[in-house]
Specification:
By secondary structure, the protein is an all-beta fold. The chain contains no helices and 21 strands.
């Protein structure tokens, strides 16, 4: 891992990371910076249910901690974090402290998830926005969980006949949260907690541009922009 000065392009420091665990894969699937820390998600072995997480000091690249996390489904290429925690959705929705890697909270134990009970991947890729973690729960719809405590704020109402795309993280605006499912995209009112409109598409990534007022939807062969509200 190499850090370079944004103004000059000169290398600031270089720190070794573990080699890829499978042939033809990069050492890390994704990374993110939060405060003074750099977080990496290492490539899993082929067929493995474990991914490697590590946190490094941003000033000199020294590794602060590492661990292996059980993860069913496609390993995350985008890490979702704030200045305190790293959030992941798998069998449970979890928050791990960036300071030491310990579990801050775990959500989902004992929850009624309907036909998805017993599946290894019940919680989708999350998004954190204004102190709230948004995540799809099995095929029951979107949930909003307090980022600090891990308690449920609300859950989506009226979802029927749709299958959530759990590898696509929600995007959040001021009035709506946007989720992907097997029939397209739906906008969920943040006050009424139910979908108010749907759009037929096949999204791979949803990106909210709050300054530009656009929701960018990346598909396999093209990208589209919709109004963000």
């Amino acid at each position: 891992m190499v850090a370079a000065d944004l103004d000059s392009g000169k290398e600031r420091w270089r720190s070794p990371v573990e080699a890829p665990q499978a042939v033809g894969t990069p050492p890390a699937l994704g990374g993110a910076v939060a405060g003074s820390r750099v977080v990496l998600c290492g490539s899993p072995r082929f067929g493995s249910k474990f991914i490697r997480l590590s946190v490094h000091d941003k000033r000199h690249g020294r590794e602060l901690w590492r661990l292996s996390e059980t993860f069913a489904g496609t390993a995350p290429s985008r890490l979702i974090l704030d200045d305190r925690n790293l959030y992941m959705g798998a069998e449970h929705l979890t928050a791990r402290r960036l300071s030491d890697g310990e579990l801050e909270w775990l959500f989902g134990t004992g929850r009624d998830v309907g036909d998805s009970a017993g599946e290894e991947r019940r919680y989708g890729a999350p998004t954190v926005h204004d102190g709230v973690v948004y995540c799809t729960e099995a095929d029951r719809g979107l949930i909003a969980v307090d980022a600090a405590s891990g308690t449920l704020n609300w859950q989506e109402k009226g979802l029927s006949g749709r299958k959530n795309k759990r590898d696509v993280a929600p995007a959040v605006g001021k009035r709506y949260a946007y989720c992907a499912d097997d029939t397209g995209l739906r906008a969920i009112d943040l006050r009424a907690h139910e979908a108010v409109w749907t759009y037929e598409t096949d999204p791979l990534v949803l990106t909210a541009d709050s300054e530009g007022g656009r929701l960018y939807v990346r598909q396999e062969q093209r990208s589209i922009a919709l109004p963000l509200a």
